[in-house]
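Table S4 entry, Tetratricopeptide repeat protein.
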Amino acid sequence: MDRAAAYQTALQQAQLGGRACQYLLGRATFDGDGTAQNRRTAAQWFWDAANEGHAEAARRLGEMYRDADGLPHDLFQARHWFETAARLGDPSAGNALAEISGD
C-alpha cells in the first residue's frame, strides 16, 4: 500500500474516533507524508487524539505551542499539554516541562 492509500485508510479509522489513527494522521499531516503538509490540520488531529488519551499526541501539541510551529507561541498551553502527556505516561513530557520551566 502506498503512503497516500495508507493515509486514506487511517483517515477512515480516525473519523470513527480511533486515537492511534488520529495521532498517525497528525504525524503524516505534520510531515507531509502521504498528504499535503499542514501544521494546523496536524494540530487538530493531535488535539483529537490527545483528548482521547493519546500521550504522544498531547506532547506533540505541547511542542507545537512551545515552538510556535503551526500554532501560536503559548507557554501556558504548552505546559497544559506537557502535563497532560506526562499524566498519560509519555516519558519525554517531564523533560519538556523542565525545559519551559527553566529547571
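The mean pLDDT is 90.
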